[in-house]
Write a structure and sequence with these properties.
About 35% of the residues lie in helices and about 25% in strands. It is an alpha+beta fold and about 120 residues long. Strand 2 and strand 3 form a beta hairpin. The longest helix is centred in the N-terminal third of the chain and has 25 residues, at about 30-50.
Length: about 120
């Protein structure tokens, strides 16, 4: 739960290398880049799963504003597959406008379009 810059901290590096001095700790920029790449690739697999899923998709959101006035929203999808509950973070999006209902709907529908599951929302069983 630390920012990527923790990887450049000398004390952190010493702690991580205790007992394993040859341990390679990547640069914060490498960690950030790799994380974004993994998130993008995972999103493709999640989209494929959701598009072929015949059950009910449930969504949760969370919205917040940082002290610097940047507003964000997350969208998470929840489903059950093989009697196991699953949850996937679909996206974290900066909302450049206020958190009013219309702007949140626009962000939510754009994410559903990106995952090609917009047609599944509001579909009755």
């Amino acid at each position: 739960m630390q920012p990527f810059e923790i990887a450049a901290n000398c004390s952190f590096n010493e702690l991580m290398k205790t007992g394993c001095s040859e341990l390679y700790i990547p640069l914060p920029s490498t960690i950030s880049c790799d994380l974004k790449l993994v998130f993008k690739r995972s999103g493709k697999h999640i989209a494929w799963l959701l598009q072929g899923y015949d059950g009910t998709l449930n969504f949760t959101t969370d919205a917040w504003t940082f002290p610097n006035h940047q507003a964000f929203i997350t969208i998470t999808v929840h489903l059950e597959k093989d009697s196991q509950p699953l949850a996937f973070l679909l996206d974290i999006v900066e909302v450049v406008k206020s958190h009013d209902g219309l702007n949140l709907v626009i962000v939510f529908s754009n994410i559903l379009k990106k995952f090609r599951v917009l047609h599944k929302v509001g579909k009755s069983c």
